[in-house]
Write a structure and sequence with these properties.
By secondary structure, this protein is an alpha+beta fold. Helix content is 29%, strand content 24%. The protein is globular, with a radius of gyration of 20 Å. The protein binds flavin-adenine dinucleotide. Residues 30-38, 40, 43, 56, 76, 80, 102-103, 107, 110-112, 114-116, 118-120, 124-125, 162, 167-168, 189 line the site of flavin-adenine dinucleotide (FAD).
């Protein structure tokens, strides 16, 4: 039996207003910007391609970067390369390091920040970092817009979910005075299914006291791990942390992670705790 090949229909709106009209008319159409994820079979792209596609990579309104004293606004179709071209002190260092580690310079010229965070069934590199920084995203549809914390866009299974007809238009990164920012990625993109680990840690100190600490892991395709009890327990401790405190905290983290399946893949368990130990020792 011959299979019938249905090529997708691609729309290319020329303004944000026409994009929103299109998404209203075709609420099930799938947006793409760089296409480096969606159009790549085997890289986690959607297969087969959806019937209706909307290309947003050419929209000038979605390619802006604005900065105030309190935050940095990046529109969703700004390429990773363009973000990296902004001044060295404009981007939080952990975010910059994360972007520098994504793919190759050629792919980064096409790949966008919106495409990175909106990937449906997997968490790409920037997501855990931006979720930890409490980034909010602007979501637009015809006639309305709303702002949502990035991590509130995930369903119970960790899939990125928007309502039909919606598009992510901006990401707002708050400026915060983190004293320590650490980013580590343990596997190359293609190898991530089994043993990929992303770590991001942020901390603030006031004199010799740990004022605030946050850390997050992304394990495998989409397991996000943040141990808030441990963060709370560390807050207010004197710095540097003693070896005894670090050992205690590692023990608590190990207990917390006992039942997480992705911890058992490859060398994940060992890597998770050695990264945490390194982070705690640098505070
Ligand atoms: C060789 C290679 C290496 C790679 N290495 C890495 C890597 O190291 N780390 C990494 O994180 N990624 C990697 N990627 C994947 C990809 O390049 C990045 O994740 C990239 O940032 C995706 O952006 P994009 O614009 O190409 O997304 P697209 O493919 O255009 O879209 C991705 C998803 O986001 C949705 N989407 C896009 N924009 C919006 C929007 N505004 N509103 C709502 N939904 C939207 C699309 O519908 C789709 O589901 C790699 C890809 C390749 C080909």
């Amino acid at each position: 039996m011959k299979e019938k090949f249905m090529s997708p229909h691609t729309y290319s709106p020329d303004s944000l207003a026409s994009l929103l009209l299109l998404t209203k008319r075709h609420p099930r159409a799938v947006l793409y910007a760089g296409g480096t994820l969606l159009l790549q079979s085997g890289a986690g792209g959607q297969e087969p391609l959806p019937q209706d596609l909307i290309y947003i990579g050419g929209l000038e309104e979605l390619k802006r970067i604005n900065r105030t004293d309190r935050y940095l606004d990046i529109s969703s179709a700004v390429s990773i390369s363009s973000i990296l071209e902004t001044g060295r002190h404009v981007l939080p260092s952990a975010f910059r390091e994360c972007l520098e580690g994504i793919a190759t310079p050629q792919v980064r010229n096409l790949a966008t920040l919106g495409g990175n965070v909106c990937a449906g069934t997997q968490r790409m590199d920037a997501f855990p970092v931006l979720a930890l920084m409490e980034v909010r995203i602007e979501i637009r549809r015809a006639g309305s817009s709303r702002w949502l914390p990035l991590n509130r866009c995930l369903d119970g299974e960790g899939n990125f979910i928007l309502n039909p007809g919606e598009a992510v238009t901006r990401l707002r990164i708050p400026y915060d005075d983190w004293n320590v920012q650490m980013y580590k990625k343990s596997a190359v993109f293609r190898a991530f299914e089994e043993d990929r680990i992303i770590f991001c840690g942020l901390s603030k100190r006031q004199k010799n006291t740990l004022n605030e600490i946050r850390f997050i892991y992304c394990l495998g395709r989409q397991t996000l791990l943040r141990i808030r009890d441990v963060e709370l327990e560390l807050t207010g401790k004197s710095l540097p942390l003693s070896d005894r405190t670090i050992d205690q905290i590692l023990e608590e983290a190990k207990n917390y992670c006992r039942d997480i399946a992705d911890m058992e893949k490859g060398r994940n368990r060992e890597r998770v705790f050695s990264t945490l130990k390194l982070f705690l020792s640098t505070l």
